[in-house]
Amino acid sequence: MFAILPAWGLFNAAAMLVGQNLGAQQPDRAARSVWLTGTYTMAFLAAVAIVFVAAAEPLVAIFNDDPAVLAVGTQALRVISYGYIFYARGMVMMQAFNGAGDTMTPRGRTWSASGAVRSRSPGSSPAWRRLVRTASSGRWCCRRHCWRSS
């Protein structure tokens, strides 16, 4: 997890660059900033993925040396690492929407992607469905205060 933290800085830089360039009335420059930031982030996470795939077994062995855990952990690290490049592009794009002031698009895409997985999982309980309904209605409660988001 710590290996991909620099990518979070690049994700946030994309949002800042879009907001700054749109504020300066330069939408073409904002779009170029997003594509460049996405390319740099993909290159960084590709390098991380190469290291994780190549050295998966020694990396997992740092945490546990049980052969069964080592086999499953090595396979899991490799499978997860293959998605890093796509994760990089997607997160830069979502942060670009945030920087442009559009928070509904990233929220909708995130909820639809995670909701499709969670609603079909065996652990989707009535309490989880109630939480999703409450969150999607825009009503948020915190102790004694409740408010609606617009």
Walk me through the structure.
With 150 residues, this protein is mainly alpha-helical. 75% of the residues lie in helices and 5% in strands. It contains 7 helices and 2 strands. It has helices at residues 5-23, 27-54, 56-61, 67-82, 84-99, 104-118, 126-137; strands spanning 139-142, 145-148. The chain has a two-stranded antiparallel ribbon. Strand 1 (139-142) and strand 2 form a beta hairpin. Helix 1 packs antiparallel against helix 2 (27-54) and helix 1 packs parallel to helix 5 (84-99). The relative contact order is 0.11.
Radius of gyration: 19 Å
What is the oligomer described by this structure? single chain
Class inferred from helices and paired strands = mainly alpha
Q: N- to C-terminal separation?
A: 34 Å
* Biggest β-sheet description: 2 strands, antiparallel
SSE string, helix = H, strand = E?
A: HHHHHHHEE
Sum up the overall morphology in one term.
elongated
**Number of separate strands:** 2
Residue runs with pLDDT of under 50 for 5 or more positions = 138-145
Sheet-strand content, in percent, reads 5-15%
Strand order of the largest sheet: 1-2
Query: Helical content, roughly?
Result: over 70%
Can you give the mean pLDDT?
80
Q: Count of helices?
A: 7
Secondary structure elements and pairings:
Blueprint: H1 5-23, H2 27-54, H3 56-61, H4 67-82, H5 84-99, H6 104-118, H7 126-137, E1 139-142, E2 145-148
Antiparallel strand pairs: 1-2
Short description:
This protein is mainly alpha-helical and 150 residues long. Helices cover 75% and strands 5% of the residues. The protein contains 7 helices and 2 strands; from the N terminus they run αααααααββ.
